[in-house]
């Protein structure tokens, strides 16, 4: 695709209608704007084109023989193609039920075929604007990823090693001096916090790395959570861990590194909320054929209502029981879950505890592209 070019794919099985749309959008006025229009006659052809190269906007007919528009949307979701194309559904009926189904399936807009073609332009241009915002967002995230990787590598690698060695040398020289020994202890605590921050920055870099999101494999969710629960118990012997595993939980597809880090961070936060002990409950269940739900529930200090909508933001940390955090752990958890097409929510009552709920999509036909 040439620089500055804006691509449109028209998908419709009716030759006359398809040719009319393509001729209109290929007019000189739109060609001067850099528009390039292509067309296919079936959902199967559309999917094949999208797997070869992304299109900025796709005009997708709902009702087609063979693979219809809704089936194309589902296949795009399974193959992670919806993130790169602005889909506008087309229907000769334009009924409300079609609009709802299309939007739930991942479409961004809807056009009734009976509308004059010149009224389609605003919707198509809205798709190009969406693509520009998406590209800017990707650029910012890539810059943030590189910054997190470089800073994390620097302060967590050579800098941390040199400072640690120097502090240990100083500790030997001032041994026996209470005031100096206390100063060394404080410096070592600060270095430990710096190392944790460096590690968290590394996890941010992974969460923002689009290549990592494509390192898929088949994972046993219960086995993963069980291992993380065992690690949690070693660090929190005064916390009781309760497991309530749901039945009929299928294997999931995803990045082991990202999902393990997401749940590790949730367990870490639960432990910080219960410094004097409590109960950690891990619960799984299946919601129909669409979602696997994981709940991480603690009996800790709870989160005030005014901060519950902020805890997944990057850099936010508000531990009121003296526990320190980098403000990156829950951001990484949210980002990693969203990388897998899931979502994460929190509910909490101060003094009673917190429940973090994670939804992960069931993707039985998901095949790793890596």
Tally the beta strands.
Answer: 12
CATH superfamily of the largest domain: Histidine kinase-like ATPase, C-terminal domain
**What distance separates the N and C termini?**
24 Å
* Fraction in helix: 40-55%
User: What multimeric state do the chains show?
Assistant: single chain
CATH architecture of the largest domain: 2-Layer Sandwich
**Envelope shape:** elongated
Number of domains: 3
Strand residue percentage: 15-25%
Order of SSEs, N→C? EHHEHEHEHEHHHEHEEHEEHEE
Question: What is the CATH topology assignment of the largest domain?
Answer: Heat Shock Protein 90
The average pLDDT is 84
Question: Strand order of the main beta sheet, please?
Answer: 2-1-3-4-5
Stretches with pLDDT under 50, minimum 5 residues:
364-370
Compute the CA-based radius of gyration.
Answer: 26 Å
The top level CATH class name of the largest domain:
Alpha Beta
| Largest beta-sheet characterization | 5 strands, parallel
Structural class: alpha/beta
Number of helices: 11
Task: Describe what you observe in this structure.
The longest helix has 36 residues, at 121-156. The chain is an alpha/beta fold. It is built from 11 helices and 12 strands. It folds into 3 domains: 6-119, Response regulator (Rossmann fold); 138-209; 214-370, Histidine kinase-like ATPase, C-terminal domain (Heat Shock Protein 90), CATH 3.30.565. Mean pLDDT is 84; it is low at 364-370. Strand 9 and strand 10 (291-298) form a beta hairpin. The protein is elongated, with a radius of gyration of 26 Å. Helices cover 46% and strands 20% of the residues. The protein has a 5-stranded parallel beta sheet, sandwiched between helices. Strands 7-9-10-12-11 form a 5-stranded mixed beta sheet, covered by helices on one side.
């Amino acid at each position: 695709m040439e620089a500055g070019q804006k691509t449109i794919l028209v998908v419709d099985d009716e030759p006359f209608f398809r040719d009319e749309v393509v001729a209109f959008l290929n007019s000189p006025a739109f060609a001067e704007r850099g528009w390039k229009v292509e067309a296919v006659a079936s959902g199967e052809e559309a999917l094949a084109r999208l797997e070869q190269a992304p299109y900025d906007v796709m005009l997708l007919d709902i009702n087609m023989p063979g693979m219809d528009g809704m089936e194309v949307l589902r296949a795009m979701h399974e193959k992670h193609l919806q993130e790169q194309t602005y889909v506008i559904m087309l229907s000769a009926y334009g009924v409300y039920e079609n609009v709802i189904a299309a939007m739930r399936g991942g479409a961004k807009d809807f056009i009734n075929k009976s509308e004059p073609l010149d009224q389609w332009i605003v919707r198509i241009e809205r798709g190009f604007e969406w693509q520009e915002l998406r590209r800017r967002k990707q650029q910012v995230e890539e810059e943030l990823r590189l910054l997190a990787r470089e800073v994390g590598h620097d302060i967590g690698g050579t800098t941390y090693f040199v400072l640690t060695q120097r502090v240990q040398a100083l500790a030997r020289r001032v041994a026996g001096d209470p005031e100096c020994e206390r100063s060394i202890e404080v410096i070592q605590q600060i270095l430990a916090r710096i190392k944790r921050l460096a590690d968290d920055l590394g996890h941010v870099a992974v969460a923002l790395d689009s290549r990592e999101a494509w390192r898929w494999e088949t994972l046993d969710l219960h086995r993963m959570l069980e291992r993380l629960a065992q690690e949690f118990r070693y660090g929190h012997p005064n916390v009781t861990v309760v497991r309530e595993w749901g039945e009929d939980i299928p294997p999931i597809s995803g990045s082991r590194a990202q999902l393990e880090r997401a749940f590790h961070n949730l367990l870490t936060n639960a432990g910080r909320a219960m410094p004097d002990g409590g109960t950690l409950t891990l619960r799984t269940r299946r919601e129909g054929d669409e979602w696997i739900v994981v709940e991480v529930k603690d009996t800790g200090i709870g989160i005030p209502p005014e901060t519950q909508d902020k805890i997944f933001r990057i850099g936010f940390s508000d531990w009121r029981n003296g526990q320190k955090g980098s403000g990156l752990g829950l951001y990484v958890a949210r980002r990693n879950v969203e990388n897998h097409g899931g979502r994460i929510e929190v509910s909490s009552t101060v003094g009673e505890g917190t429940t973090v709920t994670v939804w992960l999509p069931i993707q039985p036909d998901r095949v790793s592209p890596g």
